[in-house]
């Protein structure tokens, strides 16, 4: 939520900051702005709305200088407006600040600053930081930032420039992500590595409580006591090319189509014969894992849905009791501490504030943490005892697609690995399951080749106002995910429900023509699903069925049917998710929605 970028070097400041902001736009798009220092003055351009508005302003009136900071905003305090856009400056226009996060005690700080005759131009929490730094400024920006941040409560990553020190950007991180890219005669900072990739692959990830002084040929880090901190550079694997849309009209569609290759790559990386290699960051010992008493999964949104599928897998294959919780709930309940549980955090971004808070809560109770993360070096990956990377490549579309199927894949592999350690599946059962996994990419491609069929169904239902998604067993979470995908990008109301629960209340919503998406692939609950569909049909619902190839019964039962290739019940959520993603995508496009940047959302949710 909110993206920040900063650059110091010889390249054109306008194009570097704009390119960085385009990469970060998925983090928020309520307003944007940039600032530089030129001839002893802070120069700011900022505007409400999409980044295109800022681009127009900069082409008419570009910034000059060799240092600059930029921001793309997801509004928290203060409505989206020009004044509330970042950068924020103090009364004397001495410093400019961009900020990602929330200052929880901003109200009392603002009151005190007002009493000391500061005047405010915005409703943002960020503006208090600019005033504090200006007030504390003597002749050292680093020291005034350190002094000011000691007053702040909340989570924040900030970048600050000062008119009197045009040779440095001072950055500070607490709770929100901040990464420094190390270049030749240039350095760049950003909320996320995607904004650095055009310049360098050498990065330094900042930790909470660290301040950085970023100069053209030097970067230095300090702790809260102003003591120097030594930090290691790391090379990132993602390439700048992987960040483009290719020939696709939207990132979301590109990412949906990338899924067979993501799974193929993961198979190559993580399956060696009959053995599993979950990566070098997965460092729990087999003994530790074999002795687990239970698993607690905590995650948000789509990642929570993946975790829900994980519960079925761990319980079925490895016979390990598994709890699943939404992070913002997990954090505030008081789980019973017994046995030797493993807490799992599942997250694409690795920065979701609720998931991170859940992880820290579990750590404080001395529980072991395993995370499933896509973004390398992200906070959750760094704070976990072990991490399995999703290896899905950068996911830019706000609605998660390829990261979700990769999460399902990792959970499947992990459950097989645990089953092997606990002897709940024998070697020949495992090799059979590995064979089934290896057939996945081809089956996924086959589904994608039938995209037109889904588009045709989407056309029929594009004007519907309310959808119900139903499934049972391991495909109940698939129904939840199908409904979430549809509502978040099309703004059409959709509810996911376990099919067997319909008769206990929600069936009252069904009347003639009500659209219901039913997942009725061949499984242990297939017959039960058929009965549930009959119940809906007899109330004249219009049922879109996702079924298994060769099933003629559902052809008669469903108003529309989409077939996926045959596969085992426990692998089916990976295949089922593809038509659900395509259905949501096409309905949203047909309704003219901004698929990659749905309203009110941001990809990396760094506020609680
Ligand atoms: C929906 C979606 C969100 C995220 C959620 C958690 O398509 O992407 O529901 O899944 O905000 O994000 P991560 O996985 O980054 O923790």
Please tell me about this protein's structure:
- The protein has 608 residues and is α/β, with parallel strands linked by helices.
- The chain contains 20 helices and 27 strands.
- Strands 3-2-4-1-10-9-11-15 form an eight-stranded antiparallel sheet, covered by helices on one side. Strands 5-6-7-8-12-13-14 form a seven-stranded antiparallel sheet. The protein has a five-stranded parallel sheet with strand order 19-18-20-21-22, with helices on both faces.
- A hairpin with a 4-residue loop joins strand 9 (179-182) and strand 10.
- Helix 7 (259-270) runs parallel beside helix 13 (402-422) and helix 7 (259-270) runs antiparallel to helix 15 (440-449).
- The longest helix is centred in the last third of the chain and has 21 residues, at 402-422.
- The structure holds fructose -6-phosphate.
Concise overview:
By secondary structure, this protein is of the alpha/beta class.
SSE layout:
Elements lengths: L2 E6 L4 H12 L6 E8 L2 E8 L2 H10 L6 E7 L14 E2 L5 E9 L2 H10 L10 H11 L4 H9 L4 E9 L6 E6 L4 E4 L4 E4 L11 E4 L4 E5 L4 E4 L5 E2 L4 E2 L15 H7 L1 H12 E2 L2 E2 L9 H5 L3 E6 L1 H17 L3 E6 H4 L11 E6 L5 H12 L3 E6 L5 H5 L2 E4 L12 H21 L4 H12 L1 H10 L1 H11 L4 E6 L4 H15 L2 E6 L16 E6 L5 H12 L4 E7 L4 H5 L2 E5 L7 H19 L18
Parallel strand pairs: 18-19, 18-20, 20-21, 21-22, 23-24, 23-25, 25-26, 26-27
Antiparallel strand pairs: 1-4, 1-10, 2-3, 2-4, 5-6, 6-7, 7-8, 8-12, 9-10, 9-11, 11-15, 12-13, 13-14, 16-17
Bound molecules: fructose -6-phosphate (F6R).
Fructose -6-phosphate binds next to helix 9 and helix 17.
């Amino acid at each position: 939520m909110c993206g920040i970028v900063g650059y110091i070097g010889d390249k054109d400041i306008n194009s570097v900051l704009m390119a960085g902001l385009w990469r970060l736009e998925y983090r928020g798009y309520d307003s944007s702005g940039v600032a530089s220092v030129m001839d002893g003055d802070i120069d700011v351009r900022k505007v409400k709305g999409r980044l295109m508005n800022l681009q127009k302003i900069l082409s008419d009136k570009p910034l000059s200088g060799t240092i600059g900071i930029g921001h793309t905003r997801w509004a928290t305090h203060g409505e989206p407006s020009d004044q509330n856009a970042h950068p924020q400056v103090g009364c004397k226009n001495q410093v400019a600040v961009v900020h990602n996060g929330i200052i929880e005690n901003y109200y009392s700080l603002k009151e005190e600053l007002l009493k000391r005759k500061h005047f405010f131009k915005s409703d943002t929490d960020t503006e208090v930081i600019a005033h504090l730094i200006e007030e504390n400024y003597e002749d050292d920006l680093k020291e005034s930032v350190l002094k000011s941040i000691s007053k702040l409560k909340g989570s924040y990553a900030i970048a600050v420039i000062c008119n009197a020190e045009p040779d440095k950007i001072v950055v500070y991180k607490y709770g929100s992500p901040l990464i420094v890219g190390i270049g030749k005669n240039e350095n760049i900072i950003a909320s996320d590595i995607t904004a650095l990739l055009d310049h360098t692959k050498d990065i330094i990830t900042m930790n909470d409580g660290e301040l950085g002084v970023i100069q053209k040929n030097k970067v230095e880090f300090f702790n809260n006591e102003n003591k120097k901190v030594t930090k290691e550079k790391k090379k990132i694997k993602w390439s700048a090319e992987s960040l483009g849309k290719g020939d696709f009209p939207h990132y979301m569609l590109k990412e949906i189509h990338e899924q067979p290759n993501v799974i193929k790559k993961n198979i190559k990386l993580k399956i060696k014969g009959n053995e599993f290699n979950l990566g070098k960051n997965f460092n729990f010992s087999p003994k530790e894992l074999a002795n687990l008493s239970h698993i607690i999964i905590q995650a948000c949104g789509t990642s929570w849905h993946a975790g829900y599928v994980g519960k079925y897998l761990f319980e079925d294959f490895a016979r390990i009791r598994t709890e699943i919780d939404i992070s913002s709930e997990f954090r505030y309940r008081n789980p019973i501490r017994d046995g030797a549980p493993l807490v799992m955090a599942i997250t694409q971004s690795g920065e979701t504030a609720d998931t991170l808070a859940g992880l820290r809560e579990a750590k404080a109770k001395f529980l072991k943490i395993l995370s499933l993360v896509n973004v390398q070096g992200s906070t959750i990956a760094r704070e976990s005892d072990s991490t399995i990377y999703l290896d899905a490549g950068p996911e830019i579309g706000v609605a998660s697609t390829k990261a979700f199927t990769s999460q399902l894949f990792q959970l499947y592999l992990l459950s097989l690995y645990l089953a092997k350690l606990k002897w709940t599946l024998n070697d020949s059962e495992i090799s059979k399951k590995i064979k089934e996994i290896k057939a996945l990419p081809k089956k996924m491609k086959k589904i994608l080749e039938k995209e037109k069929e889904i588009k045709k169904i989407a056309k029929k239902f594009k004007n519907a106002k309310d959808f119900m998604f139903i499934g049972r067993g391991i495909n109940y979470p698939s129904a939840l995910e199908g409904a979430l995908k549809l509502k978040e990008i099309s703004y059409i109301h959709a509810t996911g429900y376990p099919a067997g629960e319909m008769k206990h209340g929600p069936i009252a919503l069904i009347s003639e023509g009500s659209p219901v998406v039913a997942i009725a692939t061949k499984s242990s609950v297939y017959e039960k699903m058929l009965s549930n569909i009959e119940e809906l049909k007899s109330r004249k619902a219009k049922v879109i069925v996702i079924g298994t190839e060769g099933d003629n019964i559902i052809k008669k039962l469903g108003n529309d049917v989409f077939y996926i290739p045959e596969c085992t019940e426990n692998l089916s959520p990976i295949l089922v998710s593809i038509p659900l993603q395509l259905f949501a995508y096409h309905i949203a496009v047909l309704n003219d929605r901004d698929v990659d940047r749905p309203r009110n959302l941001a990809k990396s949710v760094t506020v609680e």
